[in-house]
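Take a look at this chain, tokens included, and explain the fold to me:
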Amino acid sequence: MKDEVFYGKGIHELEGEYPDLYDLVKNISEVVYDGHALDYKTQKLIAIGITASRADPRATKKQIKSGMQELDITKEEIMDVLKIVLLTSGMPTFSKAVQILNSVAETQ
């Protein structure tokens, strides 16, 4: 269903040494992205908006990249999300997210 792209480097390092902790973190993601009321694509677009609004470039890039690769989310769909980020979080945050989107889209 979902690739392990959501986890940071630190989580992957737990896999060998602390497999129980790694499995716990992995299961949290699977429970959260369950598609119960909202489909996975909508949940991923929300995650993109949240990471972008936090001005977290690493997380924003990971969310955009995985959304485009796994779910065929388009640049236009992400721009719709980023327009809401502009409204709620301001121009600097929006501008940074657009730069990230453009850099990811160029490599797709």
User: Anything to note?
Assistant: Residues 91-107 form the longest helix (17 residues). The chain has six helices and no strands. The mean pLDDT is 89.
